Amino acid sequence: MSHDREPGKVTFETDGNIAFITVENESKMNSYTPAMMRQLAQHLTTFDEDDSLWVAVFCSAGKHTTAGLDMPKFFGPDAEEWEDQALVDPFALGRRSTKPIVAVVQGITFTVGIEMMLAADIVVAADTAQFQQLEVARGIAPLGGAHFRYVARAGWGNAMYHLLRADKFDAQRALDLGFVQEVVPFGQHIERGIVLAREIAANAPLGVRATKAAALRYLDQGESAAVAAIDDVKDTVFNSHDAHEGIQSFIERRQANFQGK
Questions:
Q1: What is the DSSP string of 188-226?
Q2: Domains along the chain?
Q3: How far is residue 82's CA from residue 94's CA, in Å, rounded to a whole number?
Q4: Looking at residue 6, what DSSP letter applies?
Q5: Stated pTM of the model
Q6: pLDDT score recorded for residue 3
Q7: Which NCBIfam families does this UniProt record tie to the protein (predicted)?
Q8: From CA 187, how far away is CA 26, in angstroms rounded?
């Protein structure tokens, strides 16, 4: 079978407490097929349910993040179903990962590529990254969360400026909008994502997850719910082994050895 006929895939690897989820379909600019979306959801679920894994790095092979969906396979006469409500949703519209995800993007990052990076927690972009939310130019509208995450990150005017024009913008603009947190030279982008993941993994995983959960409570339910979540944070972390270890490591002036319990 020739290379350009090989189906795309999403791979899953681990290194210590870090999971690496990589999109591999370079011959089609990492476009997603329904099978790849299922694989991605399955890998995200494996990550979320494995107590030994604390942070994930989500990236794409090659020069580009993704050109988007392989449209005929999603919307054509032989469209395949891929969604499973029991699995973690790559768009974080259904089940969302309880653990931090660092997304890394480069080159063409279109449509679902933007929506999935905005569903992650931290984004590193290569300086080659080009973003475009193309749906309205194709006769449809965003389905993966762009319609509200653009507004949440960038405000109404900036969101409409890009969503309604379907224009292309670069990594610096994405940084200015708050879509990405760092821009680094191409070739350093994945390593930078790994460095950030290692920094997160050096912290207490229960505290990290409790922080994410409480922040999401604010997004989903507002300030009063976020205030109420403080009691949940106390119950989750303050009597944990990691909390005692954190205090003891401070007293003993040494690096903490967190265990996630």
A1: SHHHHHHHHHHHHHTS-HHHHHHHHHHHHHHHHH-HHHH
A2: 3-201 (3.90.226.10), 205-251 (1.10.12)
A3: 14
A4: S
A5: 0.91
A6: 40
A7: PRK06563.1
A8: 16
* 210: exposed, middle or buried (Cβ count in 10 Å: 0-12, 13-18, 19+): buried
DSSP string, 125-143: EETT-EEE--GGGGTS---
Task: Of 29, 152, 47, 154, give the one whose Cα is nearest residue 90.
Answer: 47
Could you identify the residue written with the tokens 């965003």?
Answer: 142
Place of tokens 């207490």: 204
Which stretches of the chain are assigned E, i.e. beta strand? 9-15, 18-24, 55-60, 101-105, 108-110, 122-126, 130-132, 168-170, 182-184
Q: Extract the tokens encoding 102.
A: 């660092």
Residue type, 208: V
Give SS3 for 1: coil
Bridge-based pairing state of the strands 9-15 and 18-24: antiparallel
DSSP 240: S
**Contact status, residue 205 vs residue 242, Cβ threshold 8 Å:** yes
Radius of gyration of the chain (CA): 19
Residue whose C-alpha is closest to residue 128's, from 107, 113, 109 = 107
CB 169 within 8 A of CB 147: no
Predicted confidence at residue 168, as pLDDT, reads 98
The rounded distance, in Å, linking the Cα atoms of 108 and 46 is 28
Mean pLDDT of 70-82: 75
Helices (H) and strands (E) in the chain, counts: 10, 9
**Residue 151 predicted with pLDDT over 90:** yes
Mean pLDDT of all residues in 66-93: 86
